[in-house]
């Protein structure tokens, strides 16, 4: 009798966890459809895309295209490099005014949800590692953007090396 009760309890817990995973999967898919909308609206409102690197966007779009073909091993490096490039761009510009924090909060949340849903559905270690790394890098972009939006610093001044006056002109002049 007690083993039947334990079995029923275990099945109920599994059903609840699977239900939560299905709901999170649906929310994640819907969120990903609108992930860039806050970024687009933010850039439009600010009338500036300073701090957004074109290279990062190209890598991100390419990564999304690759992911559609279910070539996940190629998607992970592209997505990772895109996020690192976003971080680099923000730091280089010393400015994250054009970066929508909402977009990156959604990115972190959906990646965390994917870690959970993959664990529940298949416990595929490679996919879980992919989404875990993506979560860490999205968090890195979010924290970098947050820091630079609160502590705006001017970009580094590029100095030219001065040429001494005796080397400016050739002896034939």
UniProtKB/TrEMBL annotation:
<dbReference type="Pfam" id="PF04193">
    <property type="entry name" value="PQ-loop"/>
</dbReference>
<dbReference type="GO" id="GO:0016020">
    <property type="term" value="C:membrane"/>
</dbReference>
<dbReference type="InterPro" id="IPR006603">
    <property type="entry name" value="PQ-loop_rpt"/>
</dbReference>
<feature type="transmembrane region" description="Helical">
    <location>
        <begin position="16"/>
        <end position="37"/>
    </location>
</feature>
<keyword id="KW-0812">Transmembrane</keyword>
<dbReference type="InterPro" id="IPR016817">
    <property type="entry name" value="MannP-dilichol_defect-1"/>
</dbReference>
<keyword id="KW-1133">Transmembrane helix</keyword>
<feature type="transmembrane region" description="Helical">
    <location>
        <begin position="98"/>
        <end position="119"/>
    </location>
</feature>
<protein>
    <recommendedName>
        <fullName>PQ-loop repeat-containing protein 3</fullName>
    </recommendedName>
</protein>
<keyword id="KW-0472">Membrane</keyword>
<feature type="transmembrane region" description="Helical">
    <location>
        <begin position="131"/>
        <end position="148"/>
    </location>
</feature>
